[in-house]
Amino acid sequence: MALRFIGIDPNTGHNGSPTVWVDTDTNDLVVQSYTADEPTRQECVDNTAPGHATGIPPHETVVRIPRHMIQILREACDAAERSGLQGPAGSGTDLGRPSGDA
User: Fold this and answer.
1) What is d(CA 62, CA 80) in angstroms, rounded to the nearest whole number?
2) Rounded distance, CA 27 to CA 4, Å?
3) pLDDT tens, 2-57?
4) pLDDT of residue 84
5) Which long-range contacts (CB under 8 A, 24 or more apart) does 81-86 make?
6) According to a count of CB atoms within 10 Å of the terminal CB, is the N or C end of the chain lower?
7) Mean pLDDT of 65-69
8) Contacts of 25 (CB under 8 A, 6+ apart)
9) Does residue 76 register a pLDDT over 70?
10) Helix, strand, coil in percent for the chain, rounding step 5
11) Which residues contact 100 (CB under 8 A, 6 or more apart)?
12) Which position has the higher pLDDT, 85 or 15?
């Protein structure tokens, strides 16, 4: 895996650092951000996507992305798309179309 740094929360000091990278092998976005508080996690559980099991699976988490990082996320999305419209070989993922979870 090779990560390409895209940006860091411009409002962060030296403690805490919401950051966005693009995995150059898969074109996935990799995000470091604040762990969602319990009320936010519960709201996510209460509003589970239709057709999905309730709860947050042990291998997933909920993160909160600061609003002022939206432009950084857009830049990361653009960088991932520019790297190629097809996902990794054999993935069946076409990055030009939403996934089944979109």
Assistant:
1) 22
2) 10
3) 999 999 988 887 777 899 999 999 999 999 999 999 999 999 999 988 888 999 99
4) 64
5) 81/27, 83/22, 83/24, 83/27, 84/27
6) C
7) 89
8) 1, 2, 88
9) yes
10) 25, 20, 55
11) none
12) 15
Q: Which residue's entry shows tokens 């042990």?
A: 58
For residue 80 the two structure tokens come to: 């991932």
Phi-psi region of 52 (alpha: psi -120 to 50; beta: other; left: phi over 0): beta
For residue 23, with 0-12 CB atoms within 10 Å meaning exposed, 13-18 middle and 19 or more buried, which class applies? middle
What are the tokens at 8? 């860091």
Bridge partners of residue 94, in order along the sequence? 86
Residue recorded with tokens 């805490």:
16
pTM above threshold 0.90: no
Please give the structure tokens belonging to residue 36.
Answer: 């969602």
